[in-house]
């Protein structure tokens, strides 16, 4: 009877003990089991697992998913001694859980250490670049991608060795200039735009000159060819006219002379033309003046 009386208590005790000895690991987690504060094993397989109860073994969970944070804005010097205010975003994940646990302990501490490391390395990297490599009106001269790739390389190696952290991406989040240098930057960009505009204008003038010269040459060639064709056609016309005149003269010499006289009249007699000629002139042969005189 006494055993039956304590049976519920025993079940309750066993349930509590079971709860203290089992734990679950999610598929994006890694768990480090510590025994009196000392790491004894790492568990990365998702599912139900067991450990010693209570204070003997404790669970330390870490998220293996990618975490992203932004560093605080900091003022650094470029290679040309110009100051710049810059902040970066960092994408990272836990690479070696045990090293991460022993070196940084938790995510908040890890973020602080990564941020300090990035700003330290960034001050060294920016020393190899000038203001024109950061902000430029010509996109192919901006070297931010090169700076970011270099930052990933140097910080990832250091983070893995020291903290068991894998740096996936370091990117420039914000850029700004102190008020003391903003005007100088704007003046430089305006000067670059004016230089580019002058270059484009000069190239345009050169192309226009070539096109005009080509057009003038083609116009002269066309006109010369037209003049040549005109002379050829005029010669052919005159030759054909002479042939017609010759045939006409052979068929009726008097009618031919009459037509020639009419052509002469049309050339020398205008609306207000006055001529003083002898009535014996051959010019008036076909006007009937000489004939009238003979009749008299």
Number of strands: 9
Query: Main beta sheet, described?
Result: 4 strands, antiparallel
The helix-and-strand class reads: alpha+beta
The run of helices and strands is HEEEEEEEEHHHHEHHH
Low-confidence stretches: 289-296
Gross geometry: rod-shaped
- End-to-end CA span: 187 Å
Mean pLDDT: 80
The percent range for helix content is 55-70%
The radius of gyration computed from the alpha-carbon positions, rounded to a whole number of angstroms, is 53 Å
Strand content: 15-25%
Number of helical segments with 4 or more residues: 8
Account of the protein in words:
The protein has helices spanning 2-21, 97-103, 107-125, 131-134, 144-163, 179-251, 253-268, 289-295; strands at residues 22-25, 29-35, 38-43, 47-50, 57-63, 67-70, 74-77, 83-94, 165-176. Residues 289-296 have low confidence and may be disordered. Helices cover 56% and strands 20% of the residues. 10% of the residues are buried. The strands form 3 sheets. Strands 6, 7, 8 and 9 form a 4-stranded antiparallel β-sheet that branches. Strands 3-2-5 form a 3-stranded antiparallel β-sheet, covered by helices on one side. β7 (74-77) and β8 form a beta hairpin. The protein is α+β, with helices and mostly antiparallel strands. It contains 8 helices and 9 strands. It starts with a helix and ends with a helix.
């Amino acid at each position: 009877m006494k055993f039956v009386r304590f049976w519920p208590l025993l079940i309750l005790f066993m349930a509590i003990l079971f709860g203290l000895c089992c734990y679950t690991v999610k598929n994006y987690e890694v768990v480090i089991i510590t025994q009196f504060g000392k790491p004894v094993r790492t568990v990365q397989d998702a599912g139900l697992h067991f450990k010693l109860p209570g204070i003997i073994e404790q669970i330390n969970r870490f998220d293996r998913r990618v975490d992203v944070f932004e560093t605080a804005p900091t003022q650094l010097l470029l290679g040309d001694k110009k100051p710049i205010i810059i902040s970066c975003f960092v994408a990272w994940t836990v690479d070696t859980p045990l090293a991460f646990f022993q070196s940084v302990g938790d995510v908040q501490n890890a973020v602080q250490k990564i941020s300090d490391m990035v700003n330290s390395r960034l001050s060294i990297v920016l020393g190899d670049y000038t203001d024109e490599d950061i902000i430029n009106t010509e996109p192919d001269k901006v070297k931010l991608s090169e700076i970011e790739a270099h930052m990933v390389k140097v910080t990832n190696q250091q983070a893995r060795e020291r903290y068991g952290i894998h740096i996936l991406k370091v990117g420039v989040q914000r850029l700004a200039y102190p008020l003391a240098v903003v005007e100088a930057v704007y003046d430089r960009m305006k000067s670059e735009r004016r230089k580019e505009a002058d270059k484009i204008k000069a190239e345009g003038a050169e192309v226009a000159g070539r096109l005009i010269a080509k057009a003038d040459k083609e116009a002269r060639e066309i006109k010369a060819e037209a003049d040549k064709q005109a002379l050829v056609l005029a010669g052919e016309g005159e030759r054909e006219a002479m042939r017609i005149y010759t045939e006409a003269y052979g068929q009726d010499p008097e009618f031919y002379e009459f037509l020639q006289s009419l052509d002469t009249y049309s050339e020398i007699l205008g609306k207000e033309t006055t001529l003083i000629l002898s009535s014996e002139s051959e010019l008036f042969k076909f006007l009937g003046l000489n004939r009238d005189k003979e009749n008299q």
